[in-house]
Amino acid sequence: MSQAATTEQPVGTPEPVLSVGDLAISYTSRGRRTAAVQGVAFSVGPGETVALVGESGSGKTTTAHAIVGLLPGSAHRDAGAIVLGETDIAGWSQRRLATIRGRHVGFVPQDPGVALNPVQRIGVQVAEPLRIHGLAGRAEADARALEILAQAGLDDPEAVALRYPHELSGGQRQRVLIGIALACDPQLIIADEPTSALDVTVQKVVLDHLQERTREAGASVLLITHDLGVAADRADRIIVMQGGRIVEEGPAARVLEAPEHEYTRRLVAAAPSLQSRRLSATPGTRLPEALSDAVVLELAGIARRYVSRAGGRTREVVAAHDVNLSVRAGRTTALVGASGSGKTTVARIASRLVEPDAGRVLLGGRDITTATGADLRELRRGLQLVYQDPFGSLDPRMRILDTVAAPLRAYRVGDRASRARTAAGLLERVQLPADLHRRLPAELSGGQRQRVAIARALALNPKVLILDEPVSALDVSVQEQLLQLLTDLQAELGLGYLFITHDLAVVRQIADEVAVMNRGEVVEAGTVADLFEHPHDPYTVELLAAIPGRGIASSAATG
Amino acid sequence: MSTLTATVRAAGPAPTEAPTASPLLGARLRRTLTRPGGISLILAVAVLVVVAAFALAPGLFSTFDPTATAPAQRLQPPSGLHLFGTDQLGRDLFSRVVHGAGRTMFAVGLAVAIGVVFGSLVGLVSGFVGGRLDAVLMRLVDVMLAIPGLLLAMAVIAALGFGITNVAIAVGIASVASFARLLRADVMRVRRTPYVEAAFAGGERTGWVILRHVLPNAWGPVASLITLELGQAVLAVAALSFLGYGVVPPDPEWGSLISEGRAYLATSWWLTMLPGFVVVAVVLSANRISQAIQRRDGVIR
Question: Per the UniProt entry, what is one GO biological process (chain B) (predicted)?
Answer without folding.
Answer: transmembrane transport
